């Protein structure tokens, strides 16, 4: 969900974003079904879906109380295994995940409000992100084994030919690219941060950049009329925009 949220933020506040990094982002593709086919679900699936619809996704975890950490270990043992090589007590991970989700479910409520049936985005980002200001470079980082569809990233890259859009696919990584291939992920992010720092240290803002920022600060910028800003230049406020969930 993080990649979806930071994309929405970048659309509203492009001058606050130095580089948009999207780590295996959810919420980009549209929910399409072939026009000549209808998805037929078993009756029991429809019944369970109807019963669970009023509840947040992790309501069962909170209801488990002190058994919650053990439930996390049973349901998602893969997450704990990701950190076994660096943490002496792997059970710390399940405890951490449980306590992160045992509080007020504000994040789950937001996710539920943004989704339609079966976890698809209500307002897919692939239809919105092409409006992102051309001066904001983007990098999609996908896992080769992830369930996330990579086609929206390729589609965005084609639509934004006059802007910087890179796509990185990390071999062997699933959805949690930052954990599955931490070495490669950190190299990519560090490289982007260094490039932003190098531009920032130059200390020179093009005249058009100054005009653009001044206009936005006054609330009168018109991104539709604004011509392209060089994608290589630094934007004034550097904000980390990494998807971490």
Overview of the structural elements:
One of its GO terms (cellular component) is lipid droplet. GO terms for molecular function: carboxylic ester hydrolase activity; lysophosphatidic acid acyltransferase activity. Keywords: Hydrolase. InterPro entries: AB_hydrolase_fold. Belongs to the peptidase S33 family. ABHD4/ABHD5 subfamily. The protein is mostly helical and 245 residues long. The protein folds into 2 domains: 2-31 and 125-217, Alpha/Beta hydrolase fold, catalytic domain (Rossmann fold, 3-Layer(aba) Sandwich); 51-115, no CATH class. It has 11 helices and 3 strands, in the order αβααααααβαβααα. The chain has helices at residues 2-12, 43-52, 59-63, 68-75, 77-82, 91-101, 106-114, 151-159, 177-180, 182-202, 207-217; strands at 20-23, 138-143, 165-170. It has a 3-stranded parallel sheet, with helices on both faces. α8 links the parallel β2 (138-143) and β3. The protein is globular and about 55 Å long. It starts with a helix and ends in a 28-residue tail after the last helix. Residues 33-39 and 205-245 have low confidence and may be disordered.
